Amino acid sequence: MIPKFPAFKNKWHTAQDFKMNSLMETPELPAVFDGVKLAAVAAVLYIIVRCLNLKSPTAPPDLIYQDTPLSRFLLKSCSLLTKEYIPPLIWGKSGHIQTALYGKMGRVRSPHPYGLRKYLTMSDGATATFDLFEPLAENCIREDITMVICPGIANHSEKQYIRTFVDYSQKNGYRCAVLNHLGALPTIELTSPRMFTYGCTWEFGAMVNYIRKTYPQSKLVVVGFSLGGNIVCKYLGENQTNQEGVLCCVSVCQGYSALRAQETFMQWDQCRRFYNFLMADNLKKIILSHRHTLFAESPKKPQSLLESDLSRLHTATSLMQIDDSIMRYGHQEAHLVTLPCHLDLPEMEAAVIIIVHITPNSFLILLFTGLSCLLFVRLLKMNLPCCK
């Protein structure tokens, strides 16, 4: 019998050829991996550039105002309003990063100004609170000026952005009164089945009246952040007497009309739906923390309705759902009473100047009432080097 060496030899050569081919192909693998790594790094850099809006160009602000001698005087006196705003290089052009840094992580070495908490009893039994901070220096015009401040939705005087603003104002010689939205402070219990809404000015008006009675010689600078901008502008437009002694009103990042914003809030573009969920979750926690007061059983509201309210609240994922199921029942008169985009204030006196200041990365409204705004411009020119 002839042995089958040739077949064995062929198999041996085949295995040897396979090993040689593998050794020859091995040096090419690192090059492939390097290409994948390079592509991954490029993708990450592209995402970072897009998320941080680093390619977004800076530009001079767009100013929307009525062309009057007083408006021209304001713009000439404070050149800051017309100069190009250059945000911080890395994170200043991205609102998402700013929200993450300041809203969640907070500022580095955030100041803790010292103030006195005041309690005001409202006509319906609710207890409004605000914090009063006295000036730490003399202001540049040597006059008594009080800033009456209304924070954003579900915010209060203990929030870091409010503390920073108050600390800076105190050091520049201005008294500050900061409203704590009804129910927002975790350490203050509600004394009536009502909490803050998007358009109620009762608590803010009570705070302003207290300041006027306690400091009759003081001039007022009205400041509103976000939802607070709606409230302060509505307050000034409700009655002309509310404008007495007011130098100016500054509305920062105002939401304008909650009704018109409902559709926008539900869109995923720019993560709006995600932010809507976060704000709704925060508001839900505040409501549930006061559930024993807000959902107390009464003859006007049977237990079955209370259980239905709580069920809708637990399943709500947006501010509109919470408003429809809970907020409007506690305060129907002030349900979504907000200002439209054009700031139509029928009760505002004739000598009012509104300047809308828009940049690619910020938004600001300056509202001046009467000729007393000239005093505020003088204050700006003396405090801000860029306004001189």
Automatic annotation (TrEMBL):
- Transmembrane residue ranges: 363-380
Keyword field: Membrane, Transmembrane, Transmembrane helix
* GO CC term (a single one): sperm plasma membrane
* Keyword RNA-binding set for record: no
> Per its record, what are the GO molecular function terms?
acetylesterase activity; monoacylglycerol lipase activity
InterPro entries, per the entry: AB_hydrolase_1, AB_hydrolase_4_sf, AB_hydrolase_fold
Q: Does Magnesium show up as a keyword for this record?
A: no
A GO BP term here is: acylglycerol catabolic process
Q: Name one Pfam family in it.
A: Abhydrolase_1
Q: Which residues form the AB hydrolase-1 domain?
A: 146-315
Question: Which family is this protein grouped under?
Answer: Belongs to the AB hydrolase superfamily. AB hydrolase 4 family.
What this protein is called in its record is AB hydrolase-1 domain-containing protein
Which species is this UniProt entry from?
Podarcis lilfordi
